[in-house]
Amino acid sequence: MATQSVPEGACEPPPQPKPPAKSDGYLSKLRELVKHEADKNKSQCKTMGPAKVAVPSPNDFLQKRSKEPKLAPKKKEEDGKKLLPLSVPPRTYHPVTRTKKNFISKNALAVMTGEPKKPRHFCVDTRQGDKYLLEPSGLFPKYINKKNYGVLPKYVIQRNEEMKREEEEYQANVLEQLKKKAMKVLSEEERTDILKALKNNWEEINRAYQGLPIVTDTRYKQMHKEELELKLKQLEHDIAAIEKHKCVYIANM
């Protein structure tokens, strides 16, 4: 190619300084040893896939009953010592039993002297002859022929007696409680004494009431007067009630 002419007044660019080369930095003396230990302790299937294993031979295929447990081989006589015979008899052993009984004649005699079987009652309910036993069906009078039919069981009689005894004890307890809570009748002497005591009390309170001042200008005088009036009123009510009724009842608290 032809070189291009450089115009006048132009100059080449100044050369750029080269960057300093990067240093490797600090290198440990044990670098190679560390690499060797890392490669040594690395698992086989971690980075490179499963390990290569020899492929099984086609002749070593799974055979029938190859996984069943095998019995231990029989012990042979060792050092001239004979094994003791087993105490369990073999399957072909048949014990000899000698009996003098004649079972044929015995069974025949039992049949001849025994009671004959009673006929079983059946009930036929269809034209085709379908039948069923009459006794368990409920149509046969079975329970009314028993000796204890209609008789109360012992446990029912015992329970009724216990209930009757408990009812009597409860009634006796109620009557006792009513007697304790019953009202008492005052005798004529007690009624007279109570009436006399009430009248004496009324006279004392009335005397105190008559001695009050006419002017009740303080709160205390007003309260004292009201208290005496209430007592007089209650005593007059009690005296009138006792004089009106000749029979007075008092409840036992």
Question: How would you summarize this macromolecular structure in one to three sentences?
Answer:
With 253 residues, the chain is mostly helical. The chain has helices at 31-41, 103-113, 154-180, 188-210, 219-244; strands at residues 122-124, 131-133, 183-185, 249-251.
Model description:
It is a single chain. Helix 4 packs antiparallel against helix 5 (219-244). It is flat and about 140 Å long. It has 5 helices and 4 strands. By secondary structure, it is mainly α. Its main location: other.
Number of strands: 4
- Count of DSSP H/I helices: 5
C-alpha end-to-end distance = 145 Å
Helical percentage:
25-40%
Please trace the helix and strand order, writing H or E for each element. HHEEHEHHE
Structural class: mainly alpha
Strand content: under 5%
What are the low-pLDDT stretches, counting only 5+ consecutive residues below 50? none
Work out the radius of gyration.
65 Å
Main sheet characteristics: 2 strands, antiparallel
Given the C-alpha coordinates, what overall shape results? flat
Widest β-sheet, arrangement of strands = 1-2
Average predicted local confidence, pLDDT: 82
Biased composition (Basic and acidic residues): 62-82
Subcellular location: Cell projection, Cilium; Cytoplasm, Cytoskeleton
GO molecular function, one term: calmodulin binding
Main location: other
